[in-house]
Fold this sequence. Notes:
This protein has helices at 2-18, 52-64, 83-92, 108-117, 131-138, 143-156, 175-185, 212-220, 224-231, 285-291, 293-299, 322-329, 337-352, and strands spanning 23-27, 69-73, 96-101, 121-125, 161-166, 188-192, 258-261, 267-268. By secondary structure, it is of the alpha/beta class. It has an eight-stranded mixed β-sheet with strand order 6-5-4-3-2-1-7-8, covered by helices on one side. Helix 3 (83-92) links the parallel strand 2 and strand 3. Helix 2 packs parallel to helix 3 (83-92) and helix 8 crosses helix 13. The radius of gyration is 21 Å and the shape is globular.
Amino acid sequence: MKPLRGAADLLAARAQREGWPVTVTFQVTDRCNYECVHCYQEHDAHDDELSFAEVDRILDEIAAMGVLFLTFMGGEFFMRKDADQILAAAHAKGFALKVLTTGHHITDKRADFLATLRPIQFDLSLYAGTKGKHEEITRMPGSWERTVAAARRLLARKMAVLLKAPVMETNVDDVAGMAALATEMGAEFTFDPKITAIETGDQAPLELRMKAETLARFYRTTMAGHLERTFIGPESMKAKGEELRPLHHAPCRAGQQSVSISPNGDVWPCNALPMPCGNLRQQTFAEIWSGSPELASVRGLTWASLAECNRCSLRPYCQRCHGMALVEHGQVAGPSLEACRHAVEIRDSLRERGLIPATETALPPTWDRVDADGQHRAKAAEPTGKRRVAALRVIS
Length: 396
């Protein structure tokens, strides 16, 4: 896996130099048959979804632009009745495919079909090692068995599976069981300790964030090895003698080597950054990629251009997200208070283990506005951007 990541990084660097995209995330539907308590998406009616003919045309356009990596997602991707047809079309055009799914709709028959396409990875959402806690989160009886069975079907056919879990106050003690289950099955696993607001600006999911004591324990136990490898280990930037997150670097690759396409054809810099940059029903992908002023503005963001981040001594430990800054605080070029909270805990975890100097105790310039339990309510933004009309989820 390490050579593949290295090759991907080299490809991304070349794409940035030459100004062409490498990765597209294609959200082909908002519909989902789960009601996950933490979900950042608004699951809407599908009247405005791109048709298969439109999807196929867009695939041709992004292929012509040199896109190599293509990720399909929803909502729940397989809620579309033409999901298999979409995958077959993308495979025929030569994309390296990844699919984000709950696995709910992956039967033996579908797994046999997917094995003929050989996607490079399936990302399945699994929130605990046992059904009770998982189904409290999905609010769908039987969902744990469906996801685990799908993972086993895919693995049995020699396909790569990554089990993913957002970590919340309610499931933090269950993620070890999920990791053990993944190891037993032969799947990879990853945890995301950040819970974000809904893309409309609705702050309700933030109540699920780990509280201060829980977050500190999480970084000092579950994530301890990951933090050491990332910030200190032989593959880290520090070990290579390079500055981590210098001011002239971009905080992320959103809008640079990658973009996201929404179910109605809007192009966003990232699926977590709800900033319409053009619509593929009115413009070609090439026109949006090269001519969108919104994309240009996101590409121009560096650490130096971000208010308060540009003078924060915790920048090396920060995992800031443009989307979180926008939907929670209304300003894509400003700080994300949740990122500040995590940066302090990451730094303190490393310091307490003697991996960085004991003198590293500074706090971010935002600290007087950061809530210890991650609520940051006083600075919450009003809903931003275009809001799509909500509707009942469709169960198939």
